[in-house]
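Entry 12.
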Amino acid sequence: MKLKFIYTLGLVGVMAASTSCHREYLNPAPQSTLFDANAFSTAARISAQVLGLYATLKNGAFYGGRYIVYGDIRGEDFLAQDPNLVTNYDVWSLNVSNTATAVKGLWLQAYQTINACNVFLDGMDSVGTKLVGTTVANPYIAEAKLLRAISYYSLLQYYARPYADGNGSKLGLPLRLHGLKTTGFSDLARSSVADVYTQVLADLDFAEANLPLTNNSDPANAANINRAHRNTAISFKTRVYLSMQKYDKVIEEANKIVPASAPFTAKSGVAHTLVSDYTSIFKAPYLTAESILSMPFTSASNDAPGTQNDLRSYFYAANNGVGSIYSLNPSGIIGNTGWLAADKRRTFNKTSTATSNAGKIYLTKYPTSSPSDYVIVMRWAEVLLNLAEARVRSTNTVDAQAIALLNAVRGRSDATTVFTAANFATPADLANAILTERRIEFLGEGLRNNDLMRLLQTIPAKGVAPSKGPSEDNYIWPASSDEKALNKLWADQ
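Predicted 3D structure (tokens):
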């Protein structure tokens, strides 16, 4: 169960334990209604609570759908087909208020996930670790800290100034590190952006040190995809450090698992690698060696992301485009002439022939409604491109390994395009090529907003939506009106 209080936080309930490595990991059925005193009374209940943390993260208002959607539609690659605030027209047009559904909903669910992790961590500190012992407890604690880190990082990408603006000195988020079980504890001043990132990295460092190397010998086994392991923490650190423009640290983390040369299969831990068929990543059973962490869904009614939350609602052309909410912008990445027609990734871009939508192009990565398609939190291609970009920016050279990493990602979908140093007159040209590759590779996977923010780039205009520069209102979101009403210590910049 989950108890939700006046403040925008919640307590995850105790879920039934599961010993198999299946999608049921993230949707365990409630065992019973238990008092907090009993939540840590058995090893099975402790184990089940960990599964409940993943279930909170994959809520449709967060990683189950909308967080990913916001990351793409704020950018320039999609066009709104319906001026409806319920389906995020205000997000797309870069004109949200602090009472907007998106602003309040994401804040609520992310902090609910954070609080669920905090309540679990408090319980382990007080009684849980004593019950099961540190050998069992530390991996559980590591999972909770990793999920808390993902949640805080995700909030930073929307509600706080990018790290590059003042080297993290601007106000960030209320940094809540202990669980709330009752009302009356809403007041907490904002920590700096740098302090929140410091906590994110501390959580990820603990996770790296305490998560298992693997959950199964098969890298494509559900246990390695639906639950965290050591490489999950390392991989996510490359994303975090990239957002901080700490390129030497991206390289340091990536070098722990990425070999110096192709085929770039992870050299320790889970053997992540690029799969040969890009389209297989987005098809059932969704279990590939490329997936580092994904959110699975079952056909159970209480496991669905919810109406107008799932990715299919936004990025799939049902009935040849009829009723789709967002089409692809012809002037966006699909108009890039370097993205060749034979590239396998273009098979997900479908042109409608329906009378009402003739000629409009739709993304079809997410065709399934029940159960919903897996939502990818992170996959191996991102780690490779994170490293490639970091090497270019760190060395300020047309770096040979960066080109090899870029070719690895491009080449598995387009064997005819092979980049060489001669293609790039300057390091900036290579960095821009890597950014372009990210837009192609991760279209519809929610990374575009993060890339724009971390580089303090202007969000380009699209359709009737104007551009938005780093100093303009709505470049970042306002805090939820609920937070500002309940937290007397909240301060704007």
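Annotation: The chain has one domain: 2-366+378-455. DSSP finds 15 helices and ten strands in the chain.
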